[in-house]
């Protein structure tokens, strides 16, 4: 899936956008001092850091199935209990957390309903479960220009728009299927300024996530063609990308 990569590559490709969502998702979940929280699919730890700032490392736990990301999340957040695990099988007991969050993860779960059900299991009764997924279906995530450009060159390539939670209302449906109550959907967004086209493009060549895996599979000529398609669709630099995500909070 493109997550067995160095944390630094992730930071440059997707972390630059995901970091801007962390405080908004934590606010949506109502994370505040005195609570215990779990970051599911923590990656190198963009949201983990926000939780630590609010709660302290002893009251934050995190989990991710990618070994390099777990190593990075541990070294960046000393004192946090970071486990190598998937959402579908969380190595935590029932009712352990006041808030359980998954930032940009549900669309990568092998079984999103099972993953959300596990998140609800480890949350205390009435505790918050919150998740967000980029609006890939609406083309409003950070990869809209990239996938549009791919389709201009190859109409049959499957992009990320069909993934779980990537269209309006779908995350709500998944929360309901997982038995979560009092669900609420909102939109959160990250704004990132790109000083040059090269600074925007180069991280796509690092093999991160489905987009990075797609670029890695292209020969040099096709990669050049795709790069120039992207350049033609973007504004003159510097330009700002505003990336929107569907976010849902429910109660266990
Ligand atoms: C786009 S990254 C998000 C990372 C981090 N939450 C952030 O906001 O930067 C997706 C993450 O989901 C993780 N992941 C993939 N499948 C998963 C699963 N079934 N359960 C939990 N995490 C998963 C990946 O290893 C990766 O770290």
What does this entry look like structurally?
Helix 2 crosses helix 3 and helix 6 (144-153) crosses helix 10 (220-233). 38% of the residues lie in helices and 23% in strands. With 252 residues, it is an alpha/beta fold. A seven-stranded mixed beta sheet has the order 3-2-1-4-5-7-6. It is built from ten helices and seven strands. S-adenosylmethionine binds at residues 3, 14-15, 18, 40-43, 46-47, 64-66, 69, 86-88, 103-105, 108-110, 115. S-adenosylmethionine (SAM) binds next to helix 1 and helix 3.
Task: For the structure shown, list the relevant keywords.
single chain; alpha/beta; 38% helix; globular; binds S-adenosylmethionine
Number of E-state strands: 7
Mean pLDDT: 97
Order of helices and strands: HHEHEHEEHEHHEHHHE
Shape: globular
- Unreliable residue runs: none
Distance between termini? Answer: 29 Å
Find the structural class using helix and strand composition: alpha/beta
> What fraction strand?
15-25%
Share of helix, binned = 25-40%
Largest sheet strand order: 3-2-1-4-5-7-6
Query: How large is the radius of gyration?
Result: 18 Å
Number of helices: 10
Sheet with the most strands? Answer: 7 strands, mixed
**Ligand species:** S-adenosylmethionine
Quick summary of this structure?
The protein is an alpha/beta fold and 252 residues long.
């Amino acid at each position: 899936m493109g997550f067995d990569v160095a944390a630094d590559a992730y930071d440059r490709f997707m972390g630059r956008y995901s970091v801007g969502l962390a405080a908004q998702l934590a606010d949506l979940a109502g994370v505040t001092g005195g609570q215990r929280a779990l970051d599911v699919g923590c990656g190198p730890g963009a949201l983990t850091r926000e939780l630590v700032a609010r709660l302290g490392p002893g009251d934050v736990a995190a989990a991710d199935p990618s070994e390099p990301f777990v190593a990075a999340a541990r070294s960046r957040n000393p004192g946090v209990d970071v486990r190598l695990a998937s959402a579908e099988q969380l190595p935590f007991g029932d009712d352990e957390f006041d808030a359980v969050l998954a930032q940009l993860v549900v669309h990568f779960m092998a079984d999103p309903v099972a993953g959300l059900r596990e998140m609800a299991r480890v949350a205390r009764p009435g505790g918050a479960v919150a998740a967000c997924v980029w609006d890939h279906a609406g083309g409003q995530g950070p990869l809209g220009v990239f996938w549009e450009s791919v389709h201009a060159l190859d109409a049959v390539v499957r992009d990320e728009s069909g993934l779980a939670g990537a269209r309006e209302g779908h995350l709500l449906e998944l929360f309901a299927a997982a038995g979560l109550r009092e669900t609420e959907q909102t939109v959160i967004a990250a704004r990132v300024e790109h000083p040059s086209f090269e600074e925007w493009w180069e991280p796509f060549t690092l093999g991160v996530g489905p987009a990075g895996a797609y670029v890695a599979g292209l020969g040099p000529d096709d990669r050049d063609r795709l790069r120039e398609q992207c350049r033609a669709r973007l504004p003159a630099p510097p330009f700002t990308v505003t990336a929107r995500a569907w976010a849902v909070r429910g109660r266990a």
